[in-house]
Amino acid sequence: MDKRHPFHSNPAVQFPNAAHFVFFYEDTQMLLLVWERDFTKALYLVLDHQEDGTLVLDYPGSLFTERLMELVDTVFFIQVTENEVDTKYAIGAYFQAGEDWFGAYYPRESANMSDILPEIVFFKIVESGATLEVQEIEENEHKTVTEAFLNKYREILHIQM
């Protein structure tokens, strides 16, 4: 049991009723907390990963948070139906390849499997009026998108080829 007084200035904090989603917004690693009961969301900047699994977090600021919330509210969570099977995905990375923007998505049920890199699928993210939408990538874009993703995140995600 921790012997620190209750007003300790650097407490270990947990949110047991929130779903945790770590993702990259371009080069910035973020943590999205979602409380399912009323779908309340909070964003934090990930400053560091400590060896014991602790994430060192900071508030990213209101302007950055507002910009990211558009992404979170429109294309962060998607559901894909393939062969009559629905799979729910969360975005793991939002990145640019060439002139276009893409999302690397992973199955939501794999979010708590910390030691295993889940299957990743790519979708194009495009502006549609005043909002964002997800589209399938074209066959001729797949190689460019995969290479851009690997160049940006291979070392960070410890992807072995």
Features of the shown structure:
single chain; 161 residues; alpha+beta; 2 helices
Give a verbal description of the structure:
- The structure is a single chain.
- The chain has two helices and nine strands.
- With 161 residues, it is an alpha+beta fold.
- The chain has one domain (19-157).
- Strands 1, 2, 3, 4, 5, 6, 7, 8 and 9 form a nine-stranded mixed β-sheet that branches.
- The longest helix is centred in the C-terminal third of the chain and has 16 residues, at 142-157.
- The mean pLDDT is 85.
**Termini gap:** 43 Å
Q: Helical element count?
A: 2
Label the structural class.
alpha+beta
Assess the beta-strand content as a share of residues. 35-45%
Number of separate domains: 1
**How many whole angstroms does the radius of gyration measure?**
17 Å
Helix content: 10-25%
Q: Order of SSEs, N→C? A: EEEEHEEEEEH
> Which of globular, elongated, flat, extended, rod-shaped describes the shape?
globular
Largest sheet, in brief, is: 9 strands, mixed
Please tell me the overall pLDDT: 85
Oligomer: single chain
DSSP E strands, number: 9
Which parts are unreliable, with pLDDT below 50 for 5 consecutive residues or more?
none
Summarize the structure in short.
This protein has helices at 62-75, 142-157, and strands at 19-25, 28-35, 40-49, 55-58, 77-82, 85-97, 100-107, 121-128, 131-136. It is of the alpha+beta class and 161 residues long.
Topology diagram in text:
Blueprint: E1 19-25, E2 28-35, E3 40-49, E4 55-58, H1 62-75, E5 77-82, E6 85-97, E7 100-107, E8 121-128, E9 131-136, H2 142-157
Parallel strand pairs: 1-6
Antiparallel strand pairs: 1-2, 2-3, 3-4, 5-6, 6-7, 7-8, 8-9
